[in-house]
Amino acid sequence: MNRAPLAPVVLAFAWVVALVATLGSLYYSEVRLFLPCELCWYQRIFMYPQAVLLGLALWRQDLTIWPYALTLSLIGGSISTLHLMEQRFPDLFTLACKPPVPCSVEYIPQFPIPLQALIAFLLIALSMGLLAREARQRG
């Protein structure tokens, strides 16, 4: 049984996730005027390039992007996890976040921004795992 390659769909999904996360963070800071804290900036450093890199990889159908996007997502996801812990347990974590916006500030308590970022990083990381498997199967 011949099945259609999964790689283009997975790559497109990962790119859309990165693009939505990037545009979402710009919406929060530029439209809603939420000032990003220091950890927010670090998360952006690991998400924004993925919107470009995954878009280029999709356009070129380049499956070799997976280790780079996976690395960026794992580091960014770790920062998001740390940021969530800072928000949930501000007395236990005294990170390098300084005024004017401490990292413990929650603009959207029902669905915290670091949780949104973590979900995006996890979705991209899982997509890159699938892409790596597909790339290995292609040889």
From TrEMBL:
What transmembrane ranges does the database entry give? 7-29, 41-59, 66-85, 113-132
Q: Which UniProt keywords apply?
A: Chaperone, Disulfide bond, Electron transport, Membrane, Oxidoreductase, Redox-active center, Transmembrane, Transmembrane helix, Transport
| Pfam families xrefs | DsbB
Main localisation, per the record? Answer: membrane
PANTHER family membership: DISULFIDE FORMATION PROTEIN-RELATED, SPBETA PROPHAGE-DERIVED DISULFIDE BOND FORMATION PROTEIN B
Kindly provide the name given to this protein in its UniProt entry.
Disulfide bond formation protein B
Membrane topology classification: Multi-pass membrane protein
Q: Has the keyword Membrane been applied to this entry?
A: yes
An example Gene Ontology biological process = protein folding
Question: Is rRNA processing among the key words of this record?
Answer: no
InterPro entries found in the cross-reference section: DiS_bond_form_DsbB/BdbC, Disulphide_bond_form_BdbC, DsbB-like_sf
Spell out the NCBIfam families in the cross-references. PRK03113.1
| Domain of life, per lineage | Bacteria
Homology family: Belongs to the DsbB family. BdbC subfamily.
- Where is it found, in Gene Ontology cellular component terms? membrane
Q: Name one GO molecular function term.
A: protein-disulfide reductase activity
**Organism field:** Thermus scotoductus
- State its location(s): Membrane
**SUPFAM superfamilies given in the database record:** DsbB-like
